[in-house]
Amino acid sequence: MKNARGNSRPNFEKIIETPEFKQLVKRKNTFATPYIIFFFAAYFLLPILTGYTKILENRAIGWMTWTWVYAFSMFIMVWVFTSIYMNKAKDFDKDVEEILKKNVVE
């Protein structure tokens, strides 16, 4: 099947049924799940610790309490997780290109 420019295009209905695509989706989910769980645990732990305990009210550095340190560490965590995912996404992109090459409709 050709698109408006006359180029071949992938048959996406066929691609989603291929074992390669299913394996790629499984690998992506397996890779992302621990990061997602850790992120949500850390994200929801901050309001729980600040709202129901006094653990983070102690001073950490000068006037700054551990609440501020924890909150700033969330930004660092997101930056690190994003960097890790961006590096891993390069591998996923290569796999996507391979799958697309195998499943182009003429």
Annotation keywords:
106 residues; mainly alpha; two-stranded antiparallel sheet; 71% helix; elongated
Walk me through the structure.
- This protein is mainly α and 106 residues long.
- The chain has one domain (9-105).
- The protein contains three helices and four strands.
- It has helices spanning 12-15, 19-52, 66-102, and strands at 9-10, 59-61, 64-65, 104-105.
- The strands form two sheets. A two-stranded antiparallel sheet has the order 1-4. It has a two-stranded antiparallel ribbon with strand order 2-3.
Protein topology:
Elements lengths: L8 E2 L1 H4 L3 H34 L6 E3 L2 E2 H37 L1 E2 L1
Antiparallel strand pairs: 1-4, 2-3
Give the helix proportion (percent range).
over 70%
Structural class: mainly alpha
What order do the SSEs take from the amino end to the carboxyl end, as H and E?
Answer: EHHEEHE
What integer is the average pLDDT? 89
- What is the domain total for the residues? 1
Shape: elongated
Head-to-tail CA distance between termini? 6 Å
Number of strand elements: 4
Unreliable sequence segments: none
In DSSP terms, counting alpha (H) and pi (I) runs of 4 or more, how many helices?
Answer: 3
Strand order of the largest sheet: 1-4
Radius of gyration from the CA trace?
Answer: 22 Å
Strand portion, in percent? Answer: 5-15%
Main sheet overview:
2 strands, antiparallel
How would you concisely characterize the structure shown here?
By secondary structure, the chain is mainly alpha-helical.
